[in-house]
Structures
1.
Amino acid sequence: MVLWLLRALIVLLILRYIVAFFAPRRRPTQRGAPTRTPERTGGTLVRDPQCGTYVPQSNAILLKRAGETVFFCSATCKDTWARAQELKS
């Protein structure tokens, strides 16, 4: 009885692989839908020069300095970066 079940299992596995080999491959997208990368909903990411964190531009803290806009993730990073720039000058 056990030998018969083992043979049946082997036959079923072989049949499954044969069907999978000849069956058409499924695509991850729906039919007719264009394949493209989805657009980000959070907006453009900007990099904090102090800690390297990326934040959405809409949530970033701005510092305008010498005609350049610099983006920060927090007020702490902004203050630390500004102090370091003053020491360099």
2.
Amino acid sequence: MATSVNLDISQRVDIVCRKGDTFDLEFIIEDADGVPIDVTTPTVYTFKMEVRESSTSPNPPIIDTTGNPATGFEITGTVDGVVNVLSSATFMETVPSGTFVYDLEATTVADSNVQTWFYGLFKVNEDITI
């Protein structure tokens, strides 16, 4: 008899980027056999991501892809398993430098099943050239 069950499928992926540079990150999503999963947005999945000072911070997110209005980050998915997180250099200039935390959630359109796929540190290094 099992003594515990782990339903947390999330993977820790720490991100280091630079203030004022284009942010372009791709995740490849595959099943256990290495076959890409259809993550097409917005018909199969929707995604959201937040970057915060800490996991318990009462302050608004530094980056919130679902905020009103949403920040300058766009998350898209393709039929061949590619999840792309993209932001312009212009928007990244407005993001403060420092070390934060983030997570990326995926929601299935068909049944509204929500899962955190990735989480970790989100470090923004200071830029020199403006």
3.
Amino acid sequence: MDESTQNNGGRDSGSPLDRLVFIELPADFRRSFGDFTTDPSIPIPVEPAEGEGRFDPRNLSWEAMVAGMLRLLAWKPDHEKAEYYRSFVKAVKPDLLQELSAAGIAKARNRDWDIAEEIFLALNGVYPAQPEPLIDLAVMYEDRGESYLAAGEEDKAEDMDIKAFETYKKVLAFDPPFPSAYFNAGFFFLRRRNYEKARNLFQTYIKISDNDEHKQQAEEIVEKLGQQGYLDELFKEAYDFIRMGKEEEGLEKAKAFLEKNPKVWNAWFLVGWACRRLERWDEGREAFEKALELGADGSDVLNELSICLLELNRLDEARACLEKALAIEPENVKIITNLGVLAMKQKHYTEAAGFFRTALEIEPGDKAAAGFLADAEDKAKSGA
């Protein structure tokens, strides 16, 4: 193997493949793994060690070859030698799907988003006919989007939702259909308040699934959507207008919807959301309180209500809302940051700094928390 030669064929400058090099193995290098036999005429992608310009042949191992192939298949699954690399990886690592899936889920849980993404993309590259890596990838994009949303980075959150949507489109196109894809995608569209799409997905899931527990859950959701008017065009228009920054139009649609469906708490949430964005704090407060009265129990409503209360200088009530929200989602960066903002308003700068540090431990790239932390530390030092 120390006779290997190197070339940079197939590298995409500025891409995750940028550091890959392709090595040519000795002509007599043939190994068999069951029905698979290596072909020395096909260059092998590998990655030099950090700081090295060229790959050191002494570092060549089966693990290094598999790692290079996985990266290539993650980001360039249509490579001309992709089928050979897939066969190579599956022969050398027959338990790869289970092992790497568990690793990807663990990375996503720890918010190592980029690594988790590459793992799931690699698994999809190796097993394009398997739906599980795509479902894991879509769920990871959803979770990453939620993380950005909690940090107030709405544009990045929207980008992740678009990626999740495109990934679900791929897995929903599988034939025969894969039930879990419909179940997970149903919740994705439910979260985006595309209730008609969610209902259709859950209805399909009910027909094709043999998971009785999940089928019952899907049936309850379908029934609720039908009973409470969520499929109304006015509701969808209200949500879309507000999301696009057209709050006045969205508010008008939401109120028109409530004239027909006054007990749908989600519609009261839309009214409150629009009013909060329009800085109509008292009207927003009333709408969020109405949503809670009608059964809303998520952290979003409590967090939004706390913002209105904070701006109305009802600080004790704002703190109570945020503490309830934090009990529901203990690692929600937006809630933790808002507790810090509340402490700042009360001139409790040391306490505020603690909240901002906690937010940054969870989401190190949160610019808002970093800015607030610097301000809190400065004021704590100066005794302001």
